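Late entry, evening session. Most of the bench is empty. Finally got around to the prediction I had been postponing all week. Sequence below, unchanged from the version circulated by S.P.
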Amino acid sequence: MLEVKRCGENPLLIPENVKPSREDFKVEGVFNCGVAKYKDEVILLCRVAESVKGAVEGEVRIPVVKKIGGKDEITVLSLKKAEHPELDFTDSRTINKMMRQGKRTVYLTSLSHLRVARSKDGIHFTVEDTPSIFPCAEEESWGMEDPRITQIGAVYYINYTSVTENGAATSLISTRDFETFERHGIIFAPENKDVTIFPEKINGMYMAFNRPVPGGIGNPEMWLAQSPDLIHWGHQKHFCGISDADSWDNGRIGGGAVPFKTEQGWVKIYHAADRNDRYCLGAFLLDLGDPSRVIAKTEAPILEPEAAYETEGFFGNVVFTCGCLVGGDCVSLYYGAADDKICRADFSVSQLLAGMKAI
């Protein structure tokens, strides 16, 4: 049986640990971080979600990035609830409108950017005072979310969800030092997110999991894509769907941590949610030469929201990972809890593999 040890210092980071990017902003959450080792430090590239302070009762204030005078600047929109009966304000994360084809998100209540946190021991982190990467109007007017970091050689490739009113896409940035960053633009058009890139070429091609969200036929499920250069992706193949049963993975399924290599195959930790939006984590073991072939998988979640810091928060009953570090037989999994804090859990690679069911 897999023994998962939650860090005794959990949560490692909470909103109060993060300095707002503006005086009129409030940090709502620091969560869903990409993870990397750089020199002698553990780097977390955190999603920091901020809302606008000063709203009066019955008002919602919305931060949006726009191009003004050739510069990217934040514009704050104000909505009076009483003036917009057509809008649904019940979700703390979004403002929605019911349309003939279903619910449509028309605003996000917070704006997310990416910020570096550093640690010598992987537990005690210092968050930088200012955003490391701030949204640009063209690609991320509604924010940057859920970064994953894949190291290939000396370069760290950061893919993340880039959100505008046109949908949630996936974009790519690279860095060598987590101080300067190069943008490479959108690599998966909306709506496609939860992308995780393998850390090496397989049969001469880069590979990545992605999660398109069909608007009509189909469900939010995992696909595999190939690329010669990390920019142009194709050869899409459906990988795994949601469960038909009344189970923990019958709502949606998507990429979690970047895959890591073992002698038995690639280990892919993923997330899934049920129809009540309760998020848990599971794992696949994939063939080294053909990651579309599943060798084994976990049947029950390896981590599910149970601790108070996971069940209660900005959006409760959520554990959601974007990255892990592997040292010997130990996996250190960093994960977002309840959409507002960062935690860590450790477990054994050999125990994980032994507990999987062969397919």
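Two things to note before I forget:
The longest helix spans residues 349-354.
The chain has one domain: 5-358.
Will write this up properly tomorrow.
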